[in-house]
Amino acid sequence: MQLWCFCALYRPKGNLDGLDATEIEKIIGWEGEQGLLVATLERVGFLERDSETGTLSLHGWEEHNPWLFYSEERREIARKAAFAK
Fold first, then answer.
1. pLDDT band at residue 83 under the 50/70/90 scheme
2. Could you tell me which of 19, 13, 27, 84 has the C-alpha nearest to residue 56?
3. Beta 47-49 vs 56-58: how paired, if at all?
4. How confident is the model at residue 6 (pLDDT cuts 50, 70, 90)?
5. What is the fold, at CATH topology level, of the domain defined by 2-84?
6. Quick check: 19 and 13 in contact, CB under 8 A?
7. How far apart are CA 25 and CA 38, in angstroms?
8. Which of 25, 43, 69, 81 could tie 62 with a disulfide, CB 3.0–4.6 Å?
9. Using an 8 Å Cβ cutoff, are 14 and 5 in contact?
10. 3-class DSSP state for residue 57?
11. CB neighbours (10 Å) of residue 14?
12. What percent of the chain has a predicted confidence (pLDDT) above 70?
């Protein structure tokens, strides 16, 4: 749950680019074997890895949380609308 909240606040696209397994597990509060939780989340499909870049992201984030996923686009549309007034 902490990882989803982290993405909601700081990574609205659900992309974990620049974070390694240790950092992701720290966000979650994992105290077990280093790398095990991220590997498990990836294996069961909660996290997915881009085959070209190796970047992890939350599975289905755009589909399941479109409000956050498109927040930057909405913000830009609102900015342009305000400027046009």
1. confident
2. 19
3. antiparallel
4. very high
5. Arc Repressor Mutant, subunit A (1.10.10)
6. no
7. 7
8. 69
9. no
10. strand
11. 22
12. 100
In the chain, what are the domain boundaries? 2-84
* Sign of the alpha-carbon torsion through 64, 67, 73, 77: positive
Is residue 1 predicted with pLDDT exceeding 80? no
Distance between CA 38 and CA 16 in Å, rounded?
Answer: 12
pLDDT over 80 at 30, yes or no: yes
Across 15-21, average pLDDT: 95
The pair of three-digit structure tokens given for residue 54, joined into one six-digit string = 């190796």
